[in-house]
Amino acid sequence: ALQLKGRDFLGLVDYSPEEIRYLLDLAIEIKRKHKAGEAYQPLKGKSLGMIFEKSSTRTRVSFEVGMYQLGGQALFLSRNDIQMGRGETILDTAQVMSRYLDGMILRTFGHRNVVELARGATIPVINALSDQSHPCQALADYQTALEHKGKLEGLKVAYIGDGNNVLHSLMMGAAKLGMHFASASPEGYDPDERSVKSSIEAAAETGGSVRILRDAREAIEGADIVYTDVWASMGFEEEQKEREKAFKNYQVNEALVSHAKQDYLFMHCLPAHRGEEVTEGVIDGKNSVIFDEAENRLHAQKAIMAAIM
Ligand code: CP
Ligand code: NVA
């Protein structure tokens, strides 16, 4: 049997293919129940703390509403409004929070902060985006792909653009799910090497594959899923101008997607810089499933919380 209760959810690397498939199936079932108006409240009386060091629309709203729908309540804790913003340590914060709460999420810059919070806490901790990864996003994305394609194994995922947190989790998810992942980033913006290495190792166990390329056209050839994200993530705003130059051959536009499969899915974690990393024609086109992805953040995270809390 799967042992998920009490676990942290810091990255897909810590979850087996079987566990990820279980969470995807649970997310789909939770979504079905929700649409049918059937109550599903396994977390009655429980509380989730949500610490944010950066902005958020989807993550904040979907966790807060999701926790409410599961029968519990959520507290939004902006880093600057709690004592952490004045230097109370993460370890002390973790121990205090553990005395009140049943689970915590953290959106932070340094991934080590998430690891440290989890180390100090006696309750499950969920990574709500760090510089290294965004596992909740990838879970919702693969739920979306599964709903649209009916399967995941063997599909080709092409990521075009910045080698960032979103890429890392998408790549690890593809590897764990037996998919073929290819990315293309400009020089200097490749994904993190350790992340690539551990994804390649994961893919070796599932029959999936991981390729890190320079050429966008080569990466997108025959893709079932075409994914991109902003060129300047949160914390990199001052590099916007130089990144626009570096990424100019990495826009997902009509010419580029003509090399993907005809029935490809266009995906983006959002928020998007329309007209920059993706043209309006592609992001609003018939292949785009961006709002299904956004919606599935709710269902996928309810599955995570229900499973581990
Ligand atoms: N995709 C995502 O995490 O969006 P937010 O930054 O709005 O939470
Ligand atoms: N890569 C983006 C994702 C936002 C959801 C960022 O980190 O800002």
Automatic annotation (TrEMBL):
Primary location recorded for the protein, binned into one broad class: cytoplasm
Coiled-coil ranges per UniProt: none
UniProt: carbamoyl phosphate binding residues: 56-59, 83, 107, 134-137, 269-270, 297
Domain Aspartate/ornithine carbamoyltransferase Asp/Orn-binding: 153-307
Keyword Transferase: yes
Compartment(s) of residence: Cytoplasm
GO cellular component: cytoplasm
Keywords for the protein's UniProt record, in alphabetical order: Cytoplasm, Transferase
Domain of life of the organism encoding this protein: Bacteria
MF GO annotations: amino acid binding; ornithine carbamoyltransferase activity
EC number of this enzyme: 2.1.3.3
One BP term from GO: L-arginine biosynthetic process via ornithine
Key word Nucleotidyltransferase present: no
Record's catalysed reaction(s): carbamoyl phosphate + L-ornithine = L-citrulline + phosphate + H(+)
Pfam families xrefs: OTCace (PF00185), OTCace_N (PF02729)
First-level EC class: transferase
NCBIfam families given in the database record: orni_carb_tr, PRK00779.1
Family: Belongs to the aspartate/ornithine carbamoyltransferase superfamily. OTCase family.
UniProt name for this protein: Ornithine carbamoyltransferase
Primary gene name: argF
